[in-house]
Design goal:
Peroxisomal Thiolase, Chain A, domain 1; about 35% helix; 2 domains; 13 strands; about 350 residues; five-stranded mixed β-sheet
């Protein structure tokens, strides 16, 4: 049987930081209010496009795998904030990398975008269509954020992560997965003004309003991820005790805590980085997974559980069997251009542009 081994990993976080105290300069909020309700302390604001973030993350993933861009046969890019809809964003990453042998696919499932992309790439490798793939989760939420809405403005940030997958005879990589969607609840989390539905309706691109019913999202998120985890574990014939580490979508610390209790898992097994980056939508779970690998949280020959949820309301869980290597084979000099502004200054520029 063919498997899709994860042999490379990389992330790219913009250097500009937006703290809770920064948010308090233009919103009626403070650090205690945000931290107690979300677990977030700061988030990143990008000075470049989402494709540029993805390019750097992919270059680092390739270096970690000891591969070059010519080795890539498929690029699957999960995001909500693509630079363009046509042509697709994955083709731009292909061009930036020089990955001329790669087919290119965009996936749009909001916060589960990176994980759904992992499912697509894994399936393509397992079915023999391709032998290798780059999986991307990346977002630049800041330009479309409604910075006047405290309910959402404190939650989101920008970032990117990538995984390199390759054909393997060893049982490794994603071994089971469960995907689903509460379509009837799609309107409780939506970006109004972002899409062709709003074309020629008197809105400028980026002038959006967010529908965000927090309590309903909380309930659906926990229920969806719990259901997905149960399905994926059952398919893998594993109990919760056999999972060595859990790397969940980092949208709200209370959601994570509630999910862990429902799954009856040891909280010490759960990787948390929400305090550093907030919710980066499609990038969130993959960034957390990459950091977990880099920080030695993922053990050799262990089982990892990756639950996620997002707009739609989409939900998922992946059981990954990790291999023997937890260190990068190489590094790369590919990096973002210098950023000369603070996170607050970048946000102030976005707010000013929307008020013209």
């Amino acid at each position: 049987m063919t498997y899709a081994a994860i042999t490379g990993w990389g992330k790219c976080l913009p250097p500009a930081i937006l703290t809770n105290d920064d948010l308090a300069t233009f919103l009626e909020t403070d650090d205690e209010w945000i931290t107690s309700r979300t677990g977030m302390k700061e988030r990143r604001i990008s000075h470049v496009t989402v494709s540029e973030l993805a390019h750097v993350a992919c270059a680092r993933a390739l270096a970690a795998a000891g591969k070059t861009a010519k080795d890539v046969e498929l690029i699957v890019f999960g995001s909500t904030t693509f630079d363009e809809i046509c042509p697709n964003a994955a083709s731009n990453v292909q061009r930036l990398l020089g990955a001329e042998n790669a087919a290119c696919i965009d996936v749009s499932t909001a916060c589960t975008g990176g994980m759904y992309s992992l499912s697509v790439a894994t399936s393509m490798i397992k079915s023999g269509v391709v032998k290798s793939a780059l999986v991307i989760g990346a977002e630049t939420i800041s330009p479309i954020m409604d910075w006047s809405n405290r309910d959402v403005a404190v939650l989101f940030g920008d970032g990117a992560a990538a995984l390199y997958l390759e054909e393997s005879a060893e049982e490794t990589g994603v071994i089971t997965q469960a995907l689903g969607c509460y379509g009837e609840s799609r309107d409780i989390l939506s970006v109004q003004g972002w899409g062709m539905k709003y074309a020629n309706k008197g809105r400028l691109l980026g002038q959006s309003n967010w529908a965000f019913l927090g309590q309903e999202i909380f309930k659906k998120a926990v229920a969806g991820m719990a259901q997905a985890c149960d399905k994926a574990l059952t398919q893998a014939q594993l109990s919760a005790d056999q999972i060595s580490s859990v790397v969940p979508h980092q949208a709200n610390l209370r959601i994570i805590d509630t999910l862990v209790k429902r799954l009856k898992m040891d909280k010490d097994k759960v990787f948390i980085n929400i305090h550093k980056y907030g919710n980066m939508s499609a990038a969130t779970t993959l960034v957390a997974f990459v950091e977990a690998i880099e920080e030695g949280f993922i053990a050799k020959q262990s089982y990892v559980l990756l639950p996620a949820f997002g707009g739609g309301l989409t939900w998922s869980a992946h059981v990954v069997k990790w291999g023997d290597r937890t260190h990068a084979l190489s590094t790369t000099d590919v990096d973002l251009p210098e950023c000369k502004q603070s996170g607050l200054a970048l946000v102030q520029d976005i707010i000013a542009a929307k008020s013209v």
